[in-house]
Amino acid sequence: MTSLFKLALDQKADVLKKIRQFFDDQSVLEVQTTSLLNVPVTDVYIDSISIQINLDIQLKTQYLHTSPELEMKKLIAQGSGDIYQICQVYRDNEQGSQNFNEFTMLEYYRLNFDSHQLMGDVISLIKVLGIKGEVHKLSYAQAFEQFAQINILNTNFDELKVIAKSHQLSIDFDWIEDLQIFLFTALCEPKLEQLPICFIYDYPAVQSALARVEGQVAHRFELYLSGMEVANGYDELQDAQAYQQIFDRENSKRKQLNKPCFELDIAFLKQLENSLPQCSGVAVGIDRLISQIAKSD
Amino acid sequence: MAYYSTSQFKNGLKLMLDGNPCSIISNEIRKPGKGQASNKVKLKDLITGKTLEKTFKSGESVEGADVMELDMQYLYNDGSEWNFMDPDTFDQFIINDSNMDDVRGYLVEQDMCVVTLWNDNPISVTPPNHVILEVVDTDPGLKGDSAGTGGKPATMNTGVVVQVPLFIGIGEKVKVDTRTNEYAGRS
Question: Global pTM?
Answer without folding.
Answer: 0.84
